[in-house]
Amino acid sequence: MKEYTTQQEKHPRLFEPSSMVVNIVVGLLGAIIGLQLIVTLGVTPNTAIIGAIIAMLISRVPLAGFSKFRSIHRQNLVQTTISGATFGAANALLLPIGIPYLMGDSSLVFPTLIGVLIATIIDATILYRVFDSQLFPASNAWPPGVATGEAILAGDKGGKRGKLLLYGTGIGLIGSYFGVSMSAFGVAFIGNIWALAMFGIGLLVKGYDTSLFGASIDQYYIPHGFMVGAGLVALLQVIWMLVKKPKDAKPVTSPEAATAGAQTKAETGSTQFDLPETRTAKDVSKAIKYGFIAYIICAIVLAVLTGLYAHMSAGMLIGWVLFAALVAFAHELIVGLSAMHAGWFPAFAVALISLVLGMIIGFPSIPLAILVAFAASTGPAFADMGYDFKTGWILRSSNDRAYELEGRKQQYWASLMGFAAAFIVVAIAHGSYFANGLFPPVDKVFVATIEAGLTGGHIGMNLLLWAIPGAIVQLIGGPSRQIGIMFATGLLITNPIAGWAVLVGILIRLFVLKKFGKGAESTMSIMAAGFIAGDALYGFGNSLYKVTK
Questions:
Q1: 399 pairs with which residues across the strands?
Q2: Looking at residue 11, what DSSP letter applies?
Q3: 214-236 per-position pLDDT tens digit
Q4: Distance between CA 94 and CA 376 in Å, rounded?
Q5: Is residue 77 within 8 Å of 411, Cβ to Cβ?
């Protein structure tokens, strides 16, 4: 068994020459992959596990400089960089700048690119400041992060954990081949049961809405209204969490206290455990306050660069800036909570809600285009970085608090390196993509919505009407379960098979716990990580196959 120590060498640095070169290369590779997949398939698969595998392969190269990558912490930095580059290039940069281009004003593309890059960095910085707090606990599910962490640990240790992960990955690959959402199935064994049950029910309601109600619930903006209500209550719950002065976890006064919980769980091979939180309510309050101010400044910069002052009065421009900042913050909160509990996040749908609300307010078409571009750039980086931090948290669980914080800081810089690689690739390649008619498909939805405008007053009334039950459900579940957000997330995604997978997985989980007790949690979590890893590998491979076919 591994010996756990509290006095350890310094965490590997991102800017060591060999580490920096490898991370730059994989960052550029991830950005290229992200662009190609989002314009051809409309989705961006999680490349974190691919990055971990690349780092493992590099470590086996029989040259002195590459042996350093046998360190699981260097592998963590590589997977963080490629993951940030993939999501950054596709979701946070290319997708937003395609909107003004399709609106017929190509002169707005580069100014928008600058603005959304700043927004993405703010997005990631806020997550860095609030991760492992009462608001976004590291001990929560963050399912893709668990899968990547298990993959790295299995490659490092092997043994029973490696075999279980291998079995789970094989089952995940087979299930995915036959069309089963194995990531949804795996999530059921890791996350909060109440949150996931509501997520699964929402997926089924949406998947069979025409059979159940004779019409699509999207037609009446039911999912969107539900998310508006749940999202508003979630914002109020966050504010309440900050002002009620909760009792923060006591600061860790000794390395032994920091590692005690991890040592006990490490003996059973589990990656699901609780450790003292490293961010206090004061940290979260500062992050949210300064983050919101940063979003206001970013919105002002974006408005100036894109010339929005020529399209609105001074009063409306001020309103646009404040609304854009509020939307950006709400977007990252909703997407982050969904990602934390379920590993899924309805980023496109929430951006569409922001657009519809902007239309109801009455913003002109070009400001609407920049608004939805701004909103779409926030959230994905927040969620993806949360997965990567969860991976790092698992890998560093046997170390002291200082090591965890230093490792997380290095991951933050790795994400920024990924964003830098993404910016370079998008700045160079977007002209070629757009000239050949290659856009993220959702961009066309946003533009069509703006051009169609609001048809009558029923949209606003439906949003208000269905916001009420959304708010009630979120209020009942409380901030720890987020059942309103999770139910609305399910309503916004058309994937009934995933709904069945989640609910069946929950039933199996409950049966196993009743029969074998808490001791079975370790085996279930490792197998679940394998299911998610298998689904991610199949999705990535299948995407590349479709692109190159």
A1: none
A2: P
A3: 888 888 888 888 888 888 888 78
A4: 10
A5: yes
